# Entry
Amino acid sequence: MKSLVTGATGFVGGAVARALLRAGNEVRVLTRSDADLQNLEGLQVERVAGDLRDPASLKQALQGCRHLYHVAAHYALWAKEPSIFYDVNVAGTKNLMEAAREVGTERIVYCSTIGAIGLPPDGGPGTEETAVSLAQMAGHYKRSKYLAEQEVLRLAKEGLPVVIVNPSAPVGEGDVKPTPTGQMIVEFMKGRMPAYIETGMNIVDVDDVAEGHLLAMQKGRLGERYILGCKNLLLREVFEILSTLTGIKAPSLKLPRLAVLPLAYANHWLSNLTGRPPRIPLEGVKMAKYKMHYDCSKAIRELGIPQTPPDVALGKAVRWFRAHGYA
# Structure
């Protein structure tokens, strides 16, 4: 059985490609001409050139593939040209889903994000059923992924055989870019984390997320969403785990979010002038207002997603970043 994976040069997509190979599947990966191929080194995959913004290349890439794992996205908290979020994440996803429908792809797993899942206004973990709207999406990445998910849900109602997965905050091996969560780990390892804004996150091993994609393909109900996560932690608890793993002291100074917000706005303005990513991402500070805690029981119950402890997952990330010279 042959599967097409988009985003395989990235963190989650690379893990999905490796999981498919371990399971004995033939894997074809869609790669842009300018892609960093580090995550594909040593993998017996078929590479095909294409771009989510080029529908013709997508139809060609899908030929002969029974399954599609759409993991590719523009994932960042800032971009000099915000239109890239919508060109890739929204229009690109629509292009790919329509191409899959045209060529008759048997089954699809679409990788959305936890940011498209709502949080209860009175606190408590969000679920796949928690109401949410575009107005609640902070930043272009979350807004674009929410809009893309709405397109996928619309097509699912029209009969597209797709299952949606919503990973929380994956950590582990292969975070080449790195992702915003991975960059936080790198900054901690470099001793550049003197203070923090208290917030919450759901940490999950990227290999468990990859396995969750395969399980969603096998067992997921069409048109349903599944939160792929593990344990809810406060940011302070994440730093305490990292301190134990690295021997680096965890920051003890907790800053009020509202005190940091003006600095983030100034940094954002400066980045728009210089074209350099901000050291204090405005969207990250905005999102810190919410404890991103979620109920992952649906994916555990219906899919059987593994639950690797966060300290083990974070340990994998620390070792990988060290081995590859990030810190």
In short: The chain is about 45% helix and 15% strand. The mean pLDDT is 90. The radius of gyration is 19 Å. The CA atoms of residues 54 and 95 lie 8 Å apart.
